[in-house]
Write a structure and sequence with these properties.
The chain is of the alpha+beta class. Helices cover 26% and strands 25% of the residues. The protein contains eight helices and 18 strands. It has helices at residues 37-49, 100-109, 125-130, 192-207, 227-233, 262-280, 296-301, 304-307; strands at 9-15, 27-34, 54-57, 63-65, 70-77, 85-88, 91-95, 112-113, 134-135, 138-139, 144-150, 156-160, 177-184, 186-187, 240-241, 244-246, 254-256, 289-291. Strands 6-7-13-11-12 form a five-stranded antiparallel β-sheet. A four-stranded mixed β-sheet has the order 1-2-5-3, with helices on one face. A three-stranded antiparallel β-sheet has the order 15-16-17, covered by helices on one side. The structure holds uridine-diphosphate-2(N-acetylglucosaminyl) butyric acid. Uridine-diphosphate-2(N-acetylglucosaminyl) butyric acid binds at residues 135-137, 204, 207, 216-217, 220-221, 226-229, 232, 250-252, 287.
């Protein structure tokens, strides 16, 4: 079934692999694409009525869908109000479905500083804020001034920066769904933001397999150490399970080669974690979210799949 202009677009038994940067995994019982808070409210209400869990998919850049898919409603905030960008320089109000890479380049073209650290980071604004995406050059939480959300029961709320609890690759929003956000950028000298953006982009291009099918860094960096360096020192670069490969370029990336399955990636993740634990006594925590299955596997890693992604 598909919706009219004012109703969500529903697709039953929808393949999710093409919606993720890994390009792996099974189907969603229902995929709902929404363009407005009203449509999102309708999807949440239907999911409550049918007692289905709701998963929010941004750009699919940090998720691994299990091969047997997701028994629930996967909702994507895309187009319409969720793709709107309102410039009120140096501030900007952005819908959660706005493409992060496009916003980043547009901001530096306008000689605005604050998002250069996001060069080379894929995904949507909502997804990036939800996980406080960033890297050694900074993270998006630093420029988030306000966020507007809706929770699974349909209640809307505005959050100020200091209420958002940003930390390393996390924020305190829990299960709440981001609808839009206000970012506070700052004016920079002509060309300066673009120059910085290019430097960050160049660093990534040289050190990361940006063109490969992956979900970026698989593990969070443990306190005071680098997951990539630990995996590298454990001799895991180039290790494979089926079509899943530990990137020879950056050891914290697992890339999917031809014929890879989500289960190959999950097995390789387990192998890497065990090796790093054996060699260095460090228990690596997943950064990538794993969706689907009965949650048992996720519980053995970091619980993200059930406790943060599902309602
Ligand atoms: N290193 C190795 N071998 C490797 C990879 C890295 O020895 O295979 C060493 C590097 O030489 C460096 C250290 O480990 O001394 C840290 O590596 P890098 O500078 O590449 O940064 P990172 O901590 O691995 C973080 C983010 C990246 C982000 C970069 C750059 C995490 C888990 N990763 O990587 O984010 O792009 O900084 O800002 O925080 C992501 O979140 O998906 C991601 C890729």
């Amino acid at each position: 079934m598909s919706g009219s202009d004012s109703s969500p677009r529903y697709v039953e038994n929808a393949p999710l692999a093409p919606l993720t940067s890994f390009g792996l995994g099974g189907r969603a019982r229902v995929l709902a694409q929404v363009e407005s808070p009203g449509q999102l409210g309708a999807v949440l209400s239907k999911a409550r009525d049918e007692q289905l869990p709701v998963y929010v998919l941004g750009g699919g850049a940090n998720v691994l869908i299990r091969d047997d898919g997701v028994d629930g409603v996967v909702v994507q905030l895309k187009g319409g109000e969720f793709s709107r960008v309102i410039w009120n320089t140096p501030r900007v109000v952005v819908g959660a479905g706005v493409d992060m890479a496009r916003l980043t380049i547009e901001s530096v073209r306008r000689n605005l500083s604050g998002l250069e650290c996001m060069a080379g980071i894929p995904g949507t604004v909502g997804g990036c804020i939800r996980m406080n995406a960033g890297g050694k050059f900074g993270q998006i939480g630093d420029v988030v001034r306000r966020v507007w959300t809706v929770d699974r029961s349909g209640c809307r709320r505005e959050w100020k920066h200091e209420e958002l609890g940003f930390g390393y690759r996390r924020c305190g929003l829990g299960d709440t769904i981001i609808e839009r956000a206000e970012l506070a950028l700052s004016p920079s000298a002509p060309g300066a933001a673009m120059q910085r953006y290019r430097e960050v982009w160049e660093f990534k291009r040289k050190s990361q397999p940006l063109a490969a099918d992956s979900a970026g860094c698989v593990f969070k960096n443990p306190p005071g150490a680098s997951a990539g360096a630990l995996i590298d020192r454990a001799g895991m670069k180039g290790a494979t399970v089926g079509g899943a490969v530990v990137s020879p370029e950056h050891a914290n990336f697992i890339v999917a080669s031809d014929g890879a399955s989500a289960s190959d990636v999950l097995t390789l993740i387990d192998v890497v974690r065990r090796r790093v634990a054996d060699e260095f006594g460090v228990d690596l925590e997943l950064e990538v979210q794993v969706w689907g299955g009965d949650g048992e596997w996720a519980a053995r890693t970091d619980g993200l799949a059930k406790s943060e992604s599902r309602s």
